[in-house]
Amino acid sequence: MPSLVSPRLLFLVGEIIPLKKLSRGSSSALSQGSVRFFSRVDRHKNAPLTLANLGFNTEFEKTTKNKRNKLDNVKVNYPTEAPKSREKVAASDKSRAVRVKKTLEIESAPFAATSFSELGLPSPLIERLEMEGFNVPTDVQSAAIPTILKNHDAVIQSYTGSGKTLAYVLPILSKVGPLKDKSSSGDKETGKKTDIEAVIVAPSRELAMQIVREVEKLLGPENKRVVQQLVGGANRSRQEEALKKNKPLIVVGTPGRIAEISAAGKLQTHGCRFLVLDEVDELLSFNFRQEIHRILEHVGRRSGADPQGQKNLLVKSADRQTIMVSATVPFSVVRAARSWACDPLLVQAKSVIPLESLTPGTVNLSRPTSSSNSDLNLQHQATVQSLPPALKHYYCVARLQHKVDTLRRCVYALDAQSVIAFMNHTRQLKDAVFKLEARGMKAAELHGDLGKLGRSTILKKFKSGQVRVLVTNELAARGLDVPECDLVVNLDLPTDSIHYAHRAGRTGRLGRKGTVVTICEESEVFVVKKLQKQLGVPIPVCEFTEGKLIVTDKEKHVEASR
Ligand SMILES: Nc1ncnc2c1ncn2[C@@H]1O[C@H](COP(=O)(O)OP(=O)(O)OP(=O)(O)O)[C@@H](O)[C@H]1O
C-alpha cells in the first residue's frame, strides 16, 4: 500500500486538506503517516481544487460488516516527552503537576466506534451513559474523546446536532469528579478542594443551562453539586454563596458572569485543568471579546507559558487543556487556538490533524466574499461539514407584509409540529407572534430582553409542545438542542452562511429529518443563491398552495415529499 503524504494535501477518509504549509513538527509527524491512496495526485497548476482534477478516483475499500471504518496506520505522532514547559516537575514540587501529551495513535481512536467502552472512558461513567440511554458514540465523539483523554488541546468541528457537547463533557468527567478514572496515573491531583477543575463557557444562558443539565444527568442526583451554573441574569450573590458552600469542580456559564465573578476573586480557577469555549466562533465575536480575554488569562494556565508568554515553572497553576467547539470554524478560531492553546488538533467527524497545518480558507466559513473557484470549493467543503446531511432546504418569495402568513401556510403544508422561526430584530418578534396567535397558531417569542425566568418558561413550553412556533433570533438559539424541532424558517435572511448553518442546525438533530425554509422578498433572492453556493446545498424555490409545499423550479414541478 502506498505510504506517502502528498506535499500538497492530506486525504483522510473523505477529507481533503490542502496543506500549503505544514510546520516542520506536524509535517514530519504526518509524513510518518501512511494514508490510503487509490490514485495518483496530479493537480493542474491553477485548476480549482476538486477531486476530479486531483486525479482522485476515490474508491474506498469496502469495510466488511463487522470491521469498522478505520484509518489504517495514520499516526499523528507527537513527541512522547513533553515539550520543555511540560516536563514533569521534580517530585518535590507537587504543587504543580503538568499535563503530558501522549502519542495520539489515530488507529486507537476507532472512528465510528461501536461503544463508549472502546474509547477509554471509565466504567462508572459508562454505566451512567447506559442508564441515560447513550450506547453508541457519534463519529465526532469517537474522534474527540481519545484525543482529549490523551491531553491534547483541541478544536472540535462537526455539523450541528452531531453530539459535540458529550464529545468534550465525557473526557472531562473521566478526569474530574466522582465518575473519573481512579486508576489514571500521572494526572494532576487536584489542589485545594476549592479548585475549580473545569470551566465551560457558552454564549447564551439557554445553551449554558442545557450543558449543565447534560452534565447533571450524567453525574446523577447524588452528585449534582459537582457542577454549577454561572449564567448572567441569575442572582449573582446566590451563585457566589453556592460556589463557597458546594465547592463545585465544574462551572458552566456565560462569559460576562464568569469574568465578573472571577474579577471579584470569588472564582478560584488557577488550578483549572479544562477550559471549554463552546460555540467558540460566537464567543470570539466582538460582543464577548473582553470577557473571553479575561477568562483565557485567568483560567488555569496555557500550557508552556504564563499569559505574559514567559516560561514560569514556579507558577502554582496547572497546565490548562483548552478545547474550542463549534459547527463552524472560521479562521479567527484557528488564530485564537494558535495563541491560546498548545499544539491544538483539529478534530472532525473522521479526521484528527494538527491545526497548524490549516491555512486561511481550508475551514474558513466566515469570509463569504467573492472568492476563486477553488476557495469556493474549500468553503463548500467546510460549510457542508457544518450542516446536518439529512436536511432539506427551500426558499419561497413573499412580500414583507405577507411573510408571517406564508410562515403559517408553510407550517400547515409540512404539518410541522415544532417550528423555530428566525428574525433579525427583537421588536419584530412580538408582531410575528401576535399575528400567528391571532390566526390560532400557538406561538411565543424568545430573545435577550426577556428575563431568565421568562426565557426558561418559554423554552419549556416549546420543548413540551405547548408552543408550536418559537420566534427568536440566532443568539438565543445557538447550540439549542430541541430534538423534536422539525422545521426552521428564516423570516429574515441570516447575515452570512455561518449564521444560516447554525439556524438550520436547530432541526435535523442527530440524523433526524429536518426542513429549512427561507422566506424572502424578490429583491433578496440573489442572497439565497449566494448562500446556496457557499453552503454547497440545493435550495430550490417553492410555494405553498392548497396546503402543500410545491417546488416550482422550472425544470421540475413536483410536490416536495413531507
Ligand atoms: N452518542 C449519542 N447517542 C445518542 N444521542 C446523543 C449522543 N450524543 C449526543 N446525543 C444527543 O444528540 C443531541 C445533539 O447533541 P448536541 O447538542 O451535543 O449536538 P451539537 O453537535 O453540540 O449541536 P450544535 O452544533 O447545534 O451545538 C442531544 O439531544 C444529545 O443528547
TrEMBL record:
Pfam families per record: DEAD, Helicase_C
Motif, Q motif: chain positions: 114-142
All copies of domain Helicase ATP-binding, residue ranges: 145-347
Keywords in alphabetical order: ATP-binding, Helicase, Hydrolase, Nucleotide-binding
CDD domains named among the record's database cross-references: DEADc, SF2_C_DEAD
Domain DEAD-box RNA helicase Q as annotated: residue spans: 114-142
PROSITE patterns tied to this protein: HELICASE_ATP_BIND_1 (PS51192), HELICASE_CTER (PS51194), Q_MOTIF (PS51195)
Gene Ontology molecular function: any one: RNA helicase activity
Top-rank EC class of the record's enzyme: hydrolase
EC number in record: 3.6.4.13
PANTHER family given in the database record: DEAD-BOX ATP-DEPENDENT RNA HELICASE 47, MITOCHONDRIAL (PTHR47963:SF3)
Annotated protein name in UniProt: RNA helicase
Organism (species): Salix brachista
